[in-house]
Amino acid sequence: MDSGKSFDLERHAGFARLVLNPSLNAYHWADIERSAAEILTSLETAKASGVIVDLSSLDYLGSAQLTLLVRIWKAIKASGGRMIVLVTAPVVREVINTAGLSTLWEFTDSLADAYQKLGLRSDGGTRMTMLLPFVGVVALMGAIAGLCATLFRAGNLDARLSLLLQLGFSGVALAVGVWMVIRGTGMRKKFGIAMVAASLILTVLEIMNAPLAGSAPPEQKSEAAGAEKTESAEKAGAEKEDADSGKGADAAPAKGDATKTAEPKKAAEE
Questions:
Q1: Are the C-beta atoms of residues 20 and 53 closer than 8 Å to each other?
Q2: Kind of pairing, strands 50-54 and 7-12?
Q3: Residue 178 and residue 188: Cα distance in Å, rounded?
Q4: Largest alpha-carbon pair distance within the chain?
Q5: What residues contact residue 169 under an 8 Å CB cut-off, 6+ apart?
Q6: What is the pLDDT of residues 126-163, one digit of tens each?
Q7: Angstrom distance (rounded) from CA 211 to CA 208
Q8: Which helix (H) or strand (E) holds 136?
Q9: The pTM is what?
Q10: Averaged pLDDT, 167-196
């Protein structure tokens, strides 16, 4: 934090923290007006749905500084945001109460409580619902079920479609696990690491099983072999019949020619 500045604005995902520095109490009206313009411009740029106005470093609040707070509150309210005022000094809180603003603003005495009021974790991180881990577990179960079905040839499976589904489920589980590792803490982080490891192992098994998935089940192989054998036998029989019929056609004219040759020979002998 720069003590020479009158304020510091921290931008976070979904919220902002505006810290007013003690140097603000030494500013005159012109300086405060300039600081007010900078603060309002920064808040408008941040477009935060929640703003924590941190007054914990102030031990005094004059009328000019109080007016600045009112302008900040109106700007946040006009943009549809929410303002939470962090106050630790009793004197500052008394000035705000005397001005009749204690019923208009939300107050807190710790940063962790301010985060919780905004629906965040105590360290300012985004809270993770149980929906994401549930989606990850369902995706893992889907990948395992698809792999088992492929290994044991359950039903007539389309190998390519089965592999795509398995990889899709594993990919979802991997994405959820990575997100939990990055955003989670404690047991959630450990659960995310386990999910990443499980999804990677499943992906490797699915890829290794891909060539086997392309072959037909044993029952389909025997049926295909039987059909091919029957077709070959029928084709051989048809070729034999064609050969026999051709032989008979060639033999008939030969017999007729022999008869014609024998008749002139007999006439000559007589």
A1: yes
A2: unpaired
A3: 11
A4: 160
A5: 139, 140, 142, 143, 146
A6: 655 677 788 888 888 888 888 887 777 655 667 778 77
A7: 7
A8: helix 131-151
A9: 0.50
A10: 81
